[in-house]
Amino acid sequence: MLKCMECGDESCLKKVPLFSSLGDDELEKLAHRMTFKNYDKGQDILSQGKAPGGITIICRGRAKAYRLTANGTEKILYIFARHDYIGEQYLFVNKAAAYTVTALQNVSAAFFSTKQFREILNLYPAISLRLIEELGRRTISLENILQTGGMRKTEARIAAMLSDFVRKYGVFGKDGIEISLPLSREGMANYLGMARETLSRKLSAFEKEGVIRSLSNKKIVILRPDILRKSAEDETDAYSR
Amino acid sequence: MLKCMECGDESCLKKVPLFSSLGDDELEKLAHRMTFKNYDKGQDILSQGKAPGGITIICRGRAKAYRLTANGTEKILYIFARHDYIGEQYLFVNKAAAYTVTALQNVSAAFFSTKQFREILNLYPAISLRLIEELGRRTISLENILQTGGMRKTEARIAAMLSDFVRKYGVFGKDGIEISLPLSREGMANYLGMARETLSRKLSAFEKEGVIRSLSNKKIVILRPDILRKSAEDETDAYSR
DNA sequence: CGGACCATTGATAATTGTCAAAATTCGTGG
DNA sequence: CCACGAATTTTGACAATTATCAATGGTCCG
Q1: Which CATH number fits domain B13-148: 3.40.50.300, 2.60.120.10, 1.10.3720.10, 2.40.240.20?
Q2: pLDDT per residue over B112-130, tens digit each?
Q3: What is the pTM of this model?
Q4: What is the mean pLDDT of residues B39-48?
Q5: Sign of the alpha-carbon torsion through B209, B215, B219, B223
Q6: Which of A70, A95, A131 shows the shortest C-beta gap to B132?
Q7: Alpha-carbon distance B146 to A203, whole Å?
Q8: CA of B146 to C1' of D19 (A)
């Protein structure tokens, strides 16, 4: 039986979209061509300036991808979570990674070297098509982020991020949807490209309006996801005055 | 001999990265599985909300990709030029296009339906790998745009856009690099996510500093590409005061 | 040459960033 | 479990930047 010793999850690879079309025996073969890696909180999974050398798939934990700007602050590009790919865009593009990926928690991950992965593509051509599909999705998702990032109203950007968090990390609680935030306020502000203080003020405003409730620095409850979604869609934010 | 009747260019498909590895006879076969399409200036190549239905490769002309926001303004995502792909991310993702692509000039293009293109992938598996590579490049390029878009200083974003234009459309002239701009000031402002007037003022400032010279509404000369590149790299823009 | 469209400039209002201080939260050790 | 110090966050006041509105000046094309 295929069991992931690292993350404790039965057939954890099967849940990765890229491999979902494979049978159990094929997954078994896959398992021979990869290595499990563990990263402590704060450790780098990928380093800006170094070639990724392969694909990493997260089994457990979260990580942030960021670039260092000239003035020393970091601009966060992605938050990676379980079943996300890291470095897949460099599989056939021999370039240095443009960002660093650092574990936000302890992370376990499956790693395929470029060589191993190309072998797998030869073995199972169906995975090529699947990879094309996944890269297409990634592109589409980036295009979405690009647009929300281009929105002028800061409230709209914040609302878009929170709505995204609801989708990815939301858990139903008794008062609303609980989110265990992957980033600190400072991290979220960097992700959104605004000052920490601005984010703070806007979140306080959302709280006064009854849209969210802050439980702690790392946990908030979304009381009115509908209002959030609405102000994320709308450039002309109806809920700020 | 393989000759593109539409754009007048000999072996124009050969210059498309996706097909660069193919021989002349293979290109010949390819030509049987596609249609040439012509679009007048202002015509839509792709429509927001409709499935792309295939891949379009531009042979001649430029086009803009944009989304309509709730308040009616358009947010421009891409400028497509010769040899760029349109809709390749939807090849295996059956979704409606998230943006409209409109011809900025008269455009001629090669079109492969999804069905045709999948046949081609079956026929030439090497193209799959090439497509993975191209999608990877697109992802990397989007990640770059995402970062420059996240830069707080407007001067830096403008400088990044102009540097990009230098790479794509720049022609050496006697005083510097001449650029025939693909967009109006309003278009560029939408692309950069700022007000038309702000862009105007910053461009005037660049002109006063001797970095650029405006020849007409659609043509500028870059006198100091080095300064431009520097202020695009730097969050802490050294050339504004 | 004229008219429509586009771009620039000026003045002002709104928004956001910055700096400093106060308040809260977090983790650790008692 | 509580207390304490460190780190993080929130808030306030002010400065800087950008958006908006309005008027002027240019450019393009018949």
Answers
A1: 2.60.120.10
A2: 999 999 999 888 888 889 9
A3: 0.89
A4: 93
A5: negative
A6: A131
A7: 24
A8: 23
